[in-house]
Amino acid sequence: MVTLDVHTLTVPVGVVRMLEVLLSCVSFSVAASAGHDGSSYWAWCMFTWCFCCFTTLLILVLELTRLSARVPISWDDFTTAFAMLATLMVLAASVIYPNFFARTALPRPIAATAMSCLCFVAYAVEVGLTRAKPGEVSGFLSTVPGLLKVLEAFVACIIFISLDSGFYPRFGGLQWCVAVYSLCFIFALLIILFTICRLLALFPFSFDKVLTGYNVLAVLMYMTAVVVWPLYAFQNNPRPSPCRQCPWDGLLVVSFMTCVNLVVYIVDTVYSVRLVFFISPV
User: Looking at 68-145, which runs of residues are DSSP E strands?
Assistant: First the structure.
């Protein structure tokens, strides 16, 4: 028999989650009523608000009915990873939507942007409430390396929605860069999924050392992409004028986010090396 645990709705995390559902739903509804656009950026914003709204609502329902304890996954890792991912996704939507679709002083796009910014604040607060504190025993995704893995996967998603499928296949160098983005994204996603599904214990070798080795390899691969992408993307390819939502802007976004992910992977590598080689297990 299902019993209701109303306490889950009155604790700070529960209250914040209810605000997230409300704000993401309002953002989606107002933006949808403002008009449709066929670009990948518009689709990303709409998907972000819809996905975050329904996933947060699902988390609330499962915790209210205590069914979360019966789910065969690491629930704390799942909720922490989702909160971090939702924070990044809503932040991106709060930047992308006004930049592309709210340039005119129309009330609905402005209202959608404002609600999205408030939604980002709510998810950021949840990350602060659920993140592992120093000395606290918790799942991998609640730690700094775990949150960095979520960040790496998210930045790769921004890169993917900015790619021009009609441009990068022309050059072998750009195809290498896309391969780098894809391989690193798949590995980060596998780590997240293995952690949530509690499959890390099945590894026949030290997970921390494998993770450190992967991070070093990812840094080297991203270092090549940081050089190769702008070399092939912008050589003899100046920004056209006028250029409003033109493919050239997508090339610039990919170049910038490649640099961002390189920095994230470097931080992740330094943190992993420090944990594996310089901090003795207690």
Answer: none
How many alpha carbons fall within 13 Å on the CB side of residue 237?
16
Q: What number of other Cβ atoms are within 10 A of residue 22's Cβ?
A: 16
> Token pair for residue 215?
């991070």
At CB < 8 A and 24+ separation, what contacts does 95-101 make? 96/41, 96/44, 96/45, 97/31, 97/41, 97/42, 97/45, 100/37, 100/39, 100/41, 100/42, 100/245, 101/31, 101/34, 101/37, 101/42, 101/45
* Residue burial 252-273, b: 16+ Cβ < 10 Å; e: rest: ebbbebbeebbebbbbbbebbe
Question: pLDDT tens digits, residue range 100-118?
Answer: 777 666 788 889 999 999 9
Q: Say if CB 173 and CB 232 are below 8 A apart.
A: yes
The answer to whether the predicted template modeling score (pTM) of the entire model surpasses 0.85 is no
